[in-house]
Specification:
Helix content: under 10%
Structural class: mainly beta
Strand order of the largest sheet: 4-7-10-12-13-14
Radius of gyration: 17 Å
Mean pLDDT: 95
Shape: elongated
Number of strands: 14
Pfam families: LD_SV2 (PF23894), Pentapeptide (PF00805)
Distance between the termini: 43 Å
Low-confidence stretches: none
Order of helices and strands: EEEEEEEEEEEEEEH
Number of helices: 1
């Protein structure tokens, strides 16, 4: 479902069809910028900041970004193939119709992020804070969510079949509204899921 235009951040500047491939964006600060068709392939950053920005049909492929903030941003039709995000902050950001092949994220804060309907089948997410994230309808069969804080996240209609969920907070995961066949969980996760079913674990 397309994003309601009235919910997009207000932007003051437009950067269109720029070639930032291989660029080092470290330390750059962008606020209320609309990026359209920008090529960020193999771009890198450490400590960059993007806030209230809109990215449309941008390519982040094979980039590595460390301790970079992309807060309250909207990504529409963007490609994140083989992207590495380390200790990045994406609080409140929204992803719509984006691709995440071989995507990797480690650490950082993704609370309140919306990934509704995203294809995360080949993604590996480790140690990320994803409290109250919208993961409804995600296609995450065989994905890896390792040690992820998923407290109060929404999983309605999510396909997590065969996913590795060990070490993650699964207290909000209702097995009656998500597909979990073959998913790998640890003892703590099993207790949380049993609790979601109303079982008394002793």
């Amino acid at each position: 479902m397309a994003i309601d235009p009235t919910r997009l951040p207000r932007t003051d500047t437009v950067i269109r069809d720029a070639d930032w491939a291989l660029d080092d964006l470290s330390g750059q600060v962008h606020e209320r910028v609309a990026f359209s068709g920008v090529d960020l392939t193999e771009a890198t950053s450490t400590g960059a900041s993007f806030s209230d920005c809109v990215f449309t049909r941008c390519r982040f492929n094979a980039g590595t970004h460390v301790r970079t903030a992309m807060v309250n941003c909207v990504f529409v039709g963007c490609s994140f193939f083989e992207v590495n995000l380390e200790e990045c902050k994406l609080v409140g950001s929204v992803f719509e119709d984006c691709t995440f092949g071989l995507f990797r994220a480690a650490g950082g804060d993704w609370s309140f992020v919306s990934l509704a309907g995203a294809d995360l089948k080949k993604a590996t997410i480790t140690g990320v804070r994803m409290r109250e994230a919208d993961l409804s309808g995600v296609k995450a069969a065989h994905a890896k969510f390792l040690g992820v804080d998923l407290a109060s996240a929404s999983f309605r209609g999510a396909d997590l079949s065969g996913a590795d969920l060990r070490g993650s907070n699964l207290e909000a995961l209702d097995p009656l509204t998500a597909t979990l066949k073959g998913a790998v969980i640890d003892t703590a996760g099993a207790v949380q899921i049993a609790g979601a079913l109303g079982l008394d674990v002793r």
